[in-house]
Design goal:
Blueprint: H1 26-89, H2 99-115, E1 122-127, H3 131-138, H4 140-156, E2 163-166, E3 171-176, H5 182-190
Length: about 190
């Protein structure tokens, strides 16, 4: 005993004013929404790009300023190091090379002599006689002035590659870096 049920037929509900818009009006809204979304995305992209460019420019400016500061500090440090190096290797009173500088130069010349036997050098020591008498009778200030003048006069007699050093109180050393013969050294000593 089966009962037959009446077949339900699909029916379309009546359109109501509050119902969703029809499929035919949806494409217009989608078409309007896409350009607006693109404009917003482009605007955000432009603002982000501008912001990054400003940040990069500010960073580059800060890097340039800091680089300038560091270069200035390096230059100051190099000047100080050069000044310290000069003070370590030179006599404070006369400004001439000191014993350490002389020994360093002698070591270099000895190494050169081993490589080139024909490149000889000579060393002469100059001791100021009766310097103690000058210091005691005229004072240390006058003695210092005499030592400075002796250094200037000895320096004036030297060639470009030669050197004079103050190695002690009233002692100087003259280094002739290209004295090939004893006679050449003697000629320099007579000057």
């Amino acid at each position: 005993q089966a009962r037959a049920c009446p077949r339900a037929t699909p029916s379309t509900p009546p359109a109501s004013p509050t119902a969703a818009p029809s499929a035919s009006s949806q494409p217009n809204r989608v078409r309007l929404a896409i350009p607006t979304a693109r404009r917003k995305a482009n605007s955000v992209r432009r603002r982000t790009t501008d912001s990054l460019q400003r940040a990069n420019a500010e960073l580059a400016q800060r890097v340039a300023e800091r680089t300038g500061q560091l270069q200035e500090q390096i230059a100051v440090r190099e000047r100080v190091e050069a000044q310290l190096q000069h003070q370590v290797m030179h006599d404070a009173l006369t400004g001439l090379p000191n014993r350490s500088y002389l020994l360093e130069r002698l070591t270099w010349l000895q190494a050169r002599l081993q490589r080139h036997e024909h490149r000889r050098f000579a060393v002469m020591f100059v001791d100021v006689d009766r310097f103690k008498l000058i210091n005691e009778s005229m004072g240390h200030h006058a003695g210092d002035a005499v030592l400075q003048e002796i250094g200037r006069r000895l320096l004036a007699t030297l060639g470009d590659s030669d050197m004079i050093a103050r190695v002690g109180g009233d002692e100087f050393a003259v280094l002739l870096s290209n004295a090939q013969t004893l006679e050449a050294a003697m000629r320099s000593a007579r000057r």
